[in-house]
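We close this part of the discussion by returning to an individual protein. The sequence in question and its structure tokens are set out directly beneath this paragraph:
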Amino acid sequence: MKKSIRGNIKTKLQSDKDLIVSDINKYTLWKLDTQNIVDIETGEESFAFEAWLNDSKDEFGLWADMKKHVDKHKLKSKIDKHDCTHDEQHKKPCVIAETYEVM
């Protein structure tokens, strides 16, 4: 089981996306997925990511770093964290442990 933090940060600037990835890469990861997404209804662009941590001790630090990005980009930015079993033989649905967003 891995600790996972994923998010959707509303930003169009590549420099903001690069900073988010740089902050994530300060930690030892099992895997990192990133993508640019566009809201079908509004056409707004967001940067989505999911970071799976190798060491559960890094969860608090990465969570705090990502909360700063949500605070910076505010509306429609959101992160969550959960235990992920997608890398195990017997996979279970992810259960969100905590969510952070600015409304």
About this structure: The longest helix spans residues 59-73. The chain has a mean pLDDT of 90.
